[in-house]
Amino acid sequence: MRALGAEHSDLVRAQRERSDGGWGENVRRAHATAARFEDIVAATTARLPLEAQELEWIAQGAEIDVAELWAQNLRGDLGRDGTGCSDVSFATSDGVVLGHNEDGDGEMRELIRLITLDIVEDPAVTLVWYPGMLPANSFVTTSAGLVFGMDHVPVAVADRAGCGRHFVARHAQRQRTGMDARNVLTRIPCAGGFAFDMADAPAGRVDLIESAAGRWAHTPGAPGVPHLHTNHLRAIDGTEPGLAVADDDAWLEESRSRLTALRQASSHARTAGDVVAALRAEGVRGRTDDLYTFSTVVVDTGSDEIVVQGPGDAWHGRWSAFTRGEKVDL
Questions:
Q1: Which intervals of the chain are annotated as region Disordered (predicted)?
Q2: Total domains, the chain
């Protein structure tokens, strides 16, 4: 991780300098909520020491104050994290399909990268990476046959005994079996909120796990029934105290509208190509500066196919090779 920070230090610094409305605001919020911030850092470090150390190594490599990186990585654990990201997943007769839109602030479109981590004793991991973030909070796929799509879900009051959601995600993604990954996501509470859409190729199953402010809900996939998710709680009761946001909240309305559009666009999806089309449909794909779709990534484990599309044409490749950082065209 130190090498990751060092190699991409210019990107980390570029994000720091260009994201005054994001990076600077996250640091100011961490200072303004110092007691909560320190509690969540302490809980994360105690329960997930390796993942906490990885953030320290990234900071060392990039020569950035680690406290600033903690502020970036806890942004959804200390308060609202905007909106963005959509997922579709379902089981097929010979595998599983999972598709993810990675959305964010448009100013980041030139900074995000596809990276591969090949760490001794861990499965190889390939993912969409935001410079300065622990590599875990986006689309992730591993050589253990697991695929993850993460969607932010807002909580009004964080669980100060919970762990930073990026760190929980990273711990789950380094597991060698789907069962172990699901156990992580349902036993280690997030301080803030994430929806984890997960495909487990060896087991031939998909799962949706919502984790928000110490609460969680696990919805295993059912035959013929796709999981669809955007940026509001669906399995956990989002009206509970500490979770509820105003019903007329603009981001909540946008997420609900995007889910409706995604449901319509994916109603007959059966293949990776169908899911790409659904995720890039009108009302689903983000086209504005405050909600911009950087990439659409879809995996079909049955055909060993991955489709990656950014601003240009889609690339079709061999999924099993992609997890290890190899580009093999189909």
A1: 1-24
A2: 2
